[in-house]
């Protein structure tokens, strides 16, 4: 068979193309630093990130973060009292709306749909009772681009502001605002389910880390394997502008409708109507007109991520992880094999061993009451509050974070299934609070995904965690990576395995053109067949929970990379913002560089990992299958074959920081890099050891409540 010159030419062109696009260099490339080295080192001081956390109680990091939070708040209070001023947060001044609302780049699309993966995002609220009241008042809620109109202190908004009314949080308190963070608000609602998890909300808001008189509030959140603290002042965004800032037409309409009042009374009435109480807030709020904990937690969550834009759109399971330090697993309702087992071993344990969220994908239905949806919103997250069996009926109690729009099928408010006995037995009252009961069968039929989060607070001192972070090159082909982890457990135990990449939400705009999806296989050393697989559960992690015998295990990684050349490169974002948004770039750049500093590159990397057979049977009960994202990101177009300069400038260059966390019950695991035979051993982190030694010996009493 003769090979024609045209065929040979095409082959040569392809060979040149692949040679330029795919480097054969095995050296691991470190992701670029955003900030100049001298600025980065000055800003971090002694707070250098650690890539290794040796086995310790899961409460150690939390306790350190709380103590730091309380110390920062105490220092702020002392300074404000000396100066006779309320606290003003210079690092997150709500009057600077560009800084506090917008990320460094235009945000990505709100949702990723197409079947199996839903990133719940922007609220597409129908006209509701609350909206009608405002809309009918001469459209005074219209603001430019649907942004807040102004920011005011809590004392200017609320008549009798109170952080917790009744000294504790309730699920009825929580209402989503104009931010597209239903994933976060639904996660917040889950924390009020406290059968076995008492006062989870209190753990986010340490009692000694706020001073309502001074206007300073401290919170703690979970990020990349450790707890971190954040401080905010008491300014909140309002939907409507001040009376004097209304445009002439709007104020003319208001004055005409209140012509019988003198000007000062008209002005005061305007403030009472549009700028007073929880209904005046632009973002999340409490149902009570004087309660403040929901908007303040949301504000702190936005600040720690850089801005409100960065918390728009997300996975509910990741929200619960951020608020509890738990580990989430994602289930597709269509893939659940044994629905009876999922009920008895899963949902019936809500509030006991696990917390549950659920969500729908976008069906493009304009009205949730049409086309069989029966009040269940599209592309929206919900909280699962309870699951019970009552007189042979399997029932789920669900909350819509909007605080309105409910299921109207069987067991909905006012349906024929309710009797006085049922209302008493289930402790239910009819009302439009967004809380409703629905049958388990309808629950599985109406919702597409369920997130189950293992919470470690219930036996806080029995669980231990070890973790190790590293940087790896991600091959274009999506093969299993040459880098692997191994870990050893000394006794048989329930083990939770989490493989994570960095939470890029913290440095939105500086993520570059690459995105990654993680999964892994768990093996015994020297064995080809795997014990269990861990699948992606959201954007960040792959997880599994399994009972393991004592011994050493190997974790083989599959990190699949995608590049979208329509997204901004990191260097281009820096060039575009270094003058116009200097402070924002420094803030987000520091978060980026500190995160990537966790990924220490190991000196010794195994040359090759034995090929893994994907045909071997699995033992994991997770119903999902290993699949790439439903809509792969576009690859670069094929360049002109003889333009070698063009071909080489955009070669595949993907490096990802990943971390392995091993949670064990009543024992401690140790982690190493590589296969057991040639592994790089994990050293104890000196920084963490000092922190752990600083924990009081009576810590068990401090956290037992």
Automatic annotation (TrEMBL):
Keywords: Hydrolase, Metal-binding, Phosphoprotein, Protease, Repeat, Thiol protease, Zinc, Zinc-finger. The keyword Metal-binding applies. Residues 119-456 form the Calpain catalytic domain. CDD domains: CysPc. The keyword Magnesium does not apply. GO terms for molecular function: calcium-dependent cysteine-type endopeptidase activity; zinc ion binding. It comes from the Eukaryota. The active site is at residues 182, 380, 400. One of its GO terms (biological process) is proteolysis. PROSITE patterns: CALPAIN_CAT. It holds the Pfam family Peptidase_C2. PANTHER family: CALPAIN, CALPAIN-5. Belongs to the peptidase C2 family. This is Calpain catalytic domain-containing protein. The lineage of its organism: Eukaryota, Fungi, Dikarya, Ascomycota, Pezizomycotina.
């Amino acid at each position: 068979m003769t090979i024609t010159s045209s065929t040979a030419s095409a082959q040569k062109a392809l060979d040149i193309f692949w040679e330029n696009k795919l480097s054969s260099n095995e050296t691991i490339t470190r992701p670029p630093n955003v900030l100049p080295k001298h600025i980065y080192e000055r800003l971090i001081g002694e707070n250098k990130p650690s890539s290794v956390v040796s086995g310790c109680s899961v409460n150690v990091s939390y306790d350190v973060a709380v103590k730091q939070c309380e110390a920062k708040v105490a220092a702020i209070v002392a300074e404000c009292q000396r100066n006779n001023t309320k606290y003003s947060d210079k690092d997150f001044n709500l009057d600077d709306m560009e800084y506090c609302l917008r990320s460094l780049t235009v945000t990505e699309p709100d949702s990723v749909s197409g079947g199996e993966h839903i990133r719940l995002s922007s609220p597409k609220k129908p006209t509701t009772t609350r909206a009608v009241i405002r809309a009918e008042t001469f459209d005074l809620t219209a603001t430019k681009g649907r942004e807040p109109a102004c920011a005011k202190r809590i004392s200017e908004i609320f008549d009798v502001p109170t952080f917790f009314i009744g000294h504790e949080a309730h699920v009825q308190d929580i209402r989503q605002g104009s931010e597209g963070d239903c994933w976060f608000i639904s996660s917040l609602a889950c924390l009020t389910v406290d059968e076995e998890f008492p006062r989870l909300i209190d753990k986010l808001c340490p009692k000694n880390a706020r001073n309502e008189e001074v206007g300073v509030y401290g919170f703690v959140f979970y990020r990349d394997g450790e707890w971190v603290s954040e401080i905010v002042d008491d300014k909140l965004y309002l939907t409507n502008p001040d009376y004097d800032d209304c445009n002439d037409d709007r104020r003319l309409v208001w004055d005409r409708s209140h012509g019988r009042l003198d000007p000062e009374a008209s002005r005061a009435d305007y403030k009472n109507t549009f700028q007073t109480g929880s209904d005046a807030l632009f973002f999340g709020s409490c149902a009570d007109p004087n309660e403040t904990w929901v908007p303040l937690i949301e504000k702190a969550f936005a600040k720690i991520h850089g801005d409100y834009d960065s918390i728009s759109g997300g996975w509910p399971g990741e929200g619960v992880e951020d608020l509890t330090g738990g580990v989430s697993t994602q289930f597709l309702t269509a893939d659940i094999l044994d629905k009876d087992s999922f009920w008895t071993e899963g949902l019936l344990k809500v509030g006991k061993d696990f917390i549950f969220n659920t969500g729908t994908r976008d069906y493009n239905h304009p009205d949730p009451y049409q086309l069989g949806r029966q009040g269940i919103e599209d592309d929206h997250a919900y909280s699962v509050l309870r699951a019970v069996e009552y007189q042979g009926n399997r029932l789920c109690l669900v909350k819509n974070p909007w605080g309105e729009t409910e299921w109207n099928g069987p067991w909905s408010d006012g349906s024929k299934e309710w009797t006085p006995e049922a209302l008493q037995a289930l402790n239910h009252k009819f009302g439009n609070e967004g809380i409703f009961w629905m049958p388990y069968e309808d629950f599985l039929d109406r919702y597409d995904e369920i997130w189950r989060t293992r919470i470690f607070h219930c036996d806080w001192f029995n669980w231990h965690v070890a973790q190790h972070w590293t940087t790896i090159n991600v091959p274009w082909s999506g093969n299993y990576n040459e880098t692997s982890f191994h870990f050893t457990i000394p006794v048989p135990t329930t083990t939770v395995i989490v493989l994570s990449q960095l939470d890029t939400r913290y440095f939105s705009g500086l993520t570059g053109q690459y995105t990654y999806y993680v999964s892994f296989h768990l093996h015994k050393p020297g064995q080809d067949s795997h014990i269990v697989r861990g699948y992606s559960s959201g954007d960040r992690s792959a997880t599994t929970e399994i009972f393991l015998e004592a011994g050493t295990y190997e974790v083989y990684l599959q990190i699949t990379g995608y590049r979208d050349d329509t997204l901004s490169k990191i260097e281009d974002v820096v060039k575009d913002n270094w003058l116009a948004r200097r402070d924002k770039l420094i803030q987000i750049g520091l978060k980026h560089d500190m995160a990537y500093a966790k990924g220490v590159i190991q000196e010794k990397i195994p040359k090759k990992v034995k090929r893994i057979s994907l045909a071997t049977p699995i033992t994991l009960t997770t119903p999902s299958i290993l699949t790439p994202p439903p809509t792969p990101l576009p690859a670069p177009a094929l360049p002109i074959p003889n333009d070698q300069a063009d071909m080489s400038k955009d070669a595949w260059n993907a490096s990802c920081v990943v971390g392995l966390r091993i949670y064990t019950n009543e024992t401690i695991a140790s982690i190493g890099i590589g296969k057991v035979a040639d592994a790089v051993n994990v050293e104890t982190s000196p920084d963490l050891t000092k922190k752990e030694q600083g924990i009081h010996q009576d810590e068990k009493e401090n956290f037992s409540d």
